[in-house]
């Protein structure tokens, strides 16, 4: 199929953190450089690998002028992603694991050509991935579903401008900084979010996220509750009913009690006003 390079379409920066990734990196990079959509650049952000990762990177950077790289010490995968964000020249950003691959050669064409009108009206796009054992993850979501099931960063395209609004990835969250970003985006109505029902990538399920713990998960309820203050009372109430911990249940009970008292008082007041107006009306019509 003919390749696409057209100023009408946005440039995409594909950011790939690497560290001793030689076993999987060639397959990953092949899935990127073979894309039919060519308005892309690639940033490989290496953490001073000691295997053959650098040799592989240099080989691709020599063959493809849109492949760029650095290798320096970092503070983890999200620190590497932040370095990629700083260097990226694309309007849109995509973060691919060095052991993950695009689903096929036409993925980017489907997003940026076939769905160009959706792209033009979005700041944040998400789709599906194939999980390690072969099932499709995760479908359309909202902030309530997000609490129980994160969107993998391999399924997400984000405008670079979004990071000016949210700030960079929070590197204190070792494996969940992307989860925190998703929470920020889904609780901010100023960020336009859209779902495209296609598969983006094959996700390798045995990486860092499967073996590490993260403090984000310990305080997830509190963080979501804080950010949900920007949302409607109905959404906040639904969240508390669905996911409240012990403290949340107490708060929910207090809130429900307040709403019940408010509605009861409103009802009493309305009845009294109706009775008053009825008495006034009767007096007026019976005046001589």
Protein architecture, described:
This protein has 2 domains: 12-232, Spore Coat Polysaccharide Biosynthesis Protein SpsA, Chain A, CATH 3.90.550; 244-285. 46% of the residues lie in helices and 17% in strands. Strands 1, 2, 3, 4, 5, 6, 7, 8 and 9 form a 9-stranded mixed sheet that branches. Strand 2, helix 2 and strand 3 (67-71) form a beta-alpha-beta unit. The N and C termini lie far apart (92 Å). The chain is built from 12 helices and 9 strands. With 288 residues, the chain is of the alpha/beta class. The protein is elongated, with a radius of gyration of 26 Å. The relative contact order is 0.12.
Please give the structural blueprint.
Elements: E1 12-18, H1 22-33, E2 40-46, H2 53-63, E3 67-71, H3 77-87, E4 92-95, E5 101-102, H4 107-114, H5 116-120, E6 124-130, E7 136-137, H6 143-148, E8 156-159, H7 160-166, H8 177-186, E9 193-202, H9 215-218, H10 220-227, H11 233-243, H12 246-285
Parallel strand pairs: 1-2, 1-4, 2-3, 6-9
Antiparallel strand pairs: 4-8, 5-9, 6-7, 6-8
Total E-strand runs: 9
Note the total helix count.
Answer: 12
Secondary-structure element order, N to C: EHEHEHEEHHEEHEHHEHHHH
- Taking the alpha carbons of the first and last residues, their distance comes to 92 Å
* Radius of gyration using CA atoms only: 26 Å
What is the fold-level CATH name, i.e. the topology of the largest domain?
Answer: Spore Coat Polysaccharide Biosynthesis Protein SpsA, Chain A
Sequence stretches where pLDDT stays below 50 over 5 or more residues: 1-5
User: Into which percentage range does the β-strand content fall?
Assistant: 15-25%
Supply the CATH architecture of the largest domain. Answer: Alpha-Beta Complex
Sheet bearing the most strands, described?
A: 9 strands, mixed
The top-level CATH class of the largest domain is Alpha Beta
Structural class: alpha/beta
**CATH superfamily membership of the largest domain, which one?**
Spore Coat Polysaccharide Biosynthesis Protein SpsA, Chain A
């Amino acid at each position: 199929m003919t390749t696409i390079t057209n100023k009408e379409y946005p440039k995409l920066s594909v950011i790939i953190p690497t560290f001793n990734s030689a076993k999987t990196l060639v397959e990953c990079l092949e899935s990127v450089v073979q894309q039919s959509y060519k308005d892309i650049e690639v940033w490989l952000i290496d953490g001073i690998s000691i295997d053959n990762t650098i040799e592989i990177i240099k080989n691709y950077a020599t063959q493809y002028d849109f492949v760029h790289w650095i290798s320096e010490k970092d503070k983890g995968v999200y620190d590497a992603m932040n370095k990629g964000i700083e260097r990226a020249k694309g309007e849109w950003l995509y973060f691919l694991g060095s052991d993950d691959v695009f689903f096929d050669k036409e993925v980017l064409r489907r997003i940026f050509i076939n769905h160009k009108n959706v792209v033009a009206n979005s700041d944040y796009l998400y789709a599906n991935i194939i999980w390690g054992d072969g099932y499709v993850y995760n479908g359309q979501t909202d902030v309530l579903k997000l609490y129980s099931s994160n969107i993998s960063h391999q399924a997400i395209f984000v405008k670079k401008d979004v990071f000016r609004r949210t700030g960079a990835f929070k590197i204190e969250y070792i494996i969940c900084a992307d989860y925190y970003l998703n929470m920020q985006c889904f609780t901010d109505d100023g960020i336009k979010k859209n779902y495209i029902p296609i598969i983006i990538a094959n996700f390798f399920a045995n990486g860092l996220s499967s073996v590490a713990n993260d403090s984000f998960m310990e305080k997830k309820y509190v963080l979501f509750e804080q950010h949900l203050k920007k949302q409607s009372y109905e959404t906040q109430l639904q969240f508390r009913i669905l996911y409240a911990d012990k403290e949340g249940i107490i708060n929910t009970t207090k809130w429900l009690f307040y709403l019940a008292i408010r509605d009861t008082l409103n009802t009493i007041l309305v009845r009294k006003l109706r009775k008053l107006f009825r008495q006034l009306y009767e007096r007026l019509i019976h005046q001589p």
